[in-house]
Amino acid sequence: MRLFSIFSVCFLLFFTGCARYSAADEVNEPSGTELSQQLLSEQKAGRDAKTAYETLAELDPKKLVAELNNKNKKLAFWINIYNGMVQYLLAEQPDLWESRNTFFSEKRFTVAGELLSLENVEHGIIRGGEAKLGLGFIPQLFPGKFKRSFKIKGGDPRIHFALNCGAIDCPPVEIYEPATVDARLDYRSKTYLTKVTEVDDSEEVIRTTPLFSWFRGDFRAYDGIDDFLVHFGIITEEQKSYSKDFKDYDWTLETDVWAED
Fold first, then answer.
1. Cβ–Cβ under 8 Å, residues 52 and 39
2. What are the φ/ψ torsions at residue 208 (nearest 5 degrees)?
């Protein structure tokens, strides 16, 4: 009897974890993408973004699934959501930064009827359902209907140079559009890495961001960190043999940093 109960619980978890929202025949008006951009553009202009914030919460998830029907649409929407919510929450309550772990892990905002945390969005959706501390090698178990419906399959390592978590070492905030997000993520990756990476030929060492260390498994799509750096012209093929020194990350609070290029 006990074995049957355990099996039943496991089956229920598996079943619910596999469920997804079915796509509606129409999309939300205004669209989720437009609202995600509005959430950021209002803040960039110094205006109150409350209307966009509240309307995002009321979106129909089935209509949002219908809208976000390819990877670029999902990337643009969810990066905007993450960056927009960070800016919005810290503008409203800057003291939230005093406990960074809680700031990222606690569910504080709603999108399409789902109460979410920043970690839910980053790891569960944008990174494709990766465990927070799994270095990009361990997937989340039983992610739930919402995450399964919206997660970006396979993730995309370039997002680490586009997501702004509110710290001084984060990349600037850009407002992404589906039509150009692929090219802009290339640009953001190259720009950020050019700024933070130092190559010392005399000591044969590459000094760069610890983002590579924290999420090393995410870069398998480019055959690893070295090839990612080569791909974006940060190092040469010959320099791939150099050792890597990951710098400290400056977690000093700095918001309202907008991309101007």
1. yes
2. -150, -175
Q: Report domain extents, the chain.
A: 18-169, 197-246
Q: Is 38 exposed, middle or buried (0-12, 13-18, 19+ CB in 10 A)?
A: buried
User: CA 258 to CA 261: how far, in whole Å?
Assistant: 9
pLDDT one-digit tens code per residue, 33-92 = 999 999 999 999 999 999 999 999 999 999 999 999 999 999 999 999 999 999 999 999
Instruction: Report the predicted TM-score, pTM, of the whole model to 2 decimal places.
Output: 0.93
State both tokens at 141.
Answer: 């178990």
